[in-house]
Each structure stands twice: as structure tokens, then as C-alpha cells.
Design goal:
This protein is an alpha/beta fold and 416 residues long. It has 16 helices and ten strands.
Length: 416
Amino acid sequence: MTLLALGLNHTTAPVAVRERLAVPGERLGVLLRSLIALPGIREAAILSTCNRTEVYCHTEHQDPHVLLTWLARTQNLAVGEIEPYIYTHRDAESIRHLFRVACGLDSLVLGEPQILGQMKNAYQAARQAGAVGKIFSRLFQHTFAAAKKVRTDTAIGASPISVAFAAVRLSQQIFDDLSHQTALLIGAGETIELTARHLHQQGIGRIIVANRTFDRAYALAAQFGGYAIALRELPDHLAEGDIIVSSTASQLPILGKGAIERAIRQRRHKPIFMVDLAVPRDIEPEVETLDDVYLYTVDDLKDIVEENRQARREAALQAEEIIAMEVEHFLGWLRSQGATDTIRALRAQAQEHREQALERARRALRRGATPEQALELLAHTLTQKLLHTPSVQLRQAAVHERHDLIAAARELFKLR
């Protein structure tokens, strides 16, 4: 039996190809049942995100072509359209790959935590589809444990490496409790949306979104229970913002020193944390000279992000060591499963000998033997039955000079 991982990701395929192989959540069950219906496929799971689509299988096939053909067919593609972008891993390498993916070491953003939740969802979908057996159940539980160990024992996820997240982390250093603060976000693009998401996750008290197009401001604010205003209304709301983050495409500054001075007076000099993520700048540089204002630009945050990215790279080296150890642990368990059938057969045979010896002792008692005589008979019969076949086999091993078998027997039974 073989463990196979087959797929593509952001490093091997452009987004146009990844989109064509993406599997919607509602199709997972159907595809998994189709996959395990293939000859030789024992267990399976499918992980599909915006950056990767991967198929994991416990299979009788060494050749991944069966999986490749199935994957292309289910997505209405020719094999040749996706084959140049596909990678495969077998056995130990497939286990290592699974662990690395779960830990965020194979992600576009090194160490990102979302992938672990996506992998847990993939596992649950596989279980619900009846595609998980003993091996995959143990493999995925071990994967989740390895990911937790990496998160606990390394700093892989401790340092923010997006400017939006870095901005939120800095705001937490200035305001101990974000639940009492108001964030005023200027713009409605991807960076502001990401900032809003991080602030919301950190329990920000209130979010105001200002944008030139009110509808876009409203759509973004509604996602996080916020309040939308048009950009022209900004001067009336500046004083409400404890945290102000701006990222627009304006060619001229939106916030000047005078407007911020007025806001500070209205706030009775309560501090304002300001982050200008726009290029060119949305906030006049002179604002930095004001008391009670903490102003950071995108360049300031980029320096922080680069330091954090280096910290994650160093943590990733520690993570790789942990993963190597965890792979060996799982392989040890996997190898032990090869003896399971033999152990089960040995125990069944011993149980049969026990019943036969016990029945013979009972018959002796019925014929008038004393309990001591019956016990002697039981012990003698059971010993003879248990040792007869191994003794015959060892004699034959000696005749044929199978010294390896004799040595194995001495080790197996711990004979001096």
C-alpha cells in the first residue's frame, strides 16, 4: 500500500490554472465518493483553497497517473492541460508534505494559520463521505498535533507579515483594550478590508468606513457591523477616530495638519494612532510633528514586516526539525501496522489452543481426576500445543541453515 499526495499550488501553477482545478465545498462529497470508488483506492481526502488543490490517497497504486486522470476528468480538462503543473509525493514525502502544508510552511504567506482550519474542513468532508479509514484517521490527527506543536514551540505565527496586520498590532501596543476604541478607515480597497477584518477579530469597539463612493463604504462597513460615511463627511468624524488608517488612490493628501489639529482639540488631546498605507501619501507628513499623534507610513510598516518575515524564516527552520521528527513517529506507527494481522492470527491460534487444553482438563475432571491432576494436564497440554509448531520450524531452520530465523526467534522470545 502507498500514501500518495498529488496536486498543484501557487508555486507550480498560475491562478488561471488553479481556478480551473478549484473544488467548491458542495462538490467535495460527490468527488470523494467517486475517488474511493476507483479500484485500489482505500482512503482519500481533497484539500482545495485559492492557492492549492491537492488529493491525498491511501492506495494500492504506485503510479499516480490514475489520480491525475481522475482529477482531469472530474474538472472537464485534458490531462495534458494540467500535467505540467502537477507534483506528486509518495509515502514518507507525502506525510512530510501534509505536515508542512498544515503548518503553513508551504503557504504563499509563510506560517499563515488559515490553512490548518481549511485542512480540518477537508478531513471532516472526507469523513462524512466515508473516505477515511484507520490510516487516514491516524494520519490527520497526527498532522493536526504536529501543526499545534509547531505553533506552540516556534514563533512561526507570532510576527505579523502584512502591513494591515502590522498596523493592527501597533495599535494594540498603544491602546491596551481595543474594545473601547473607534477605528476610522479611509478607503474601501483590499488593504482597508484586510485592516477591518483584523481589527474586528481583535475586538475593536467601533468601525467607521469613509470612501469617495458611499456604496462601497457601506458594503465594507456592513461586513463588520460598522458605520459608513462619504469622504466629504470625513472632517465631521475625524475626532471620533482613536485609530485612523488610510489607503486610497488619491494623488493629493486627504488629511492635512490643520484638520488633525482641530480633531486633537475636540478630543481634548486624547492620542490618535494614524497609519498612512497609501502611495502617494494620504496624510501630510507635517502631521507627525503634532503632539498626541502617532503617525506611521507604509515604509515604517514595511521595515517591521521585513523583520518579522526574517523571524518567521528562522522559526520555519525549527519547524522543519519538528516535522522531521513527527514524520518518523508516524512512520513508526505505520510500520507497526504491518505486524497487526500477524499478531491477531497468533492470538487467535493461542486462544484455540487454550480452549482445546481447557476442554481436555474438564474431561479429565469428569472422569474422576483430582483438580491438581487436571491443572497439570492443562499446563502440559497448553505448553505442548504452543511450542510444537515453533519447535518444528526451528529444527527445519537448522537443517536448512536458516541462522537468521533462529536468531530472530531468540530475539523474539528473549532467549539467553
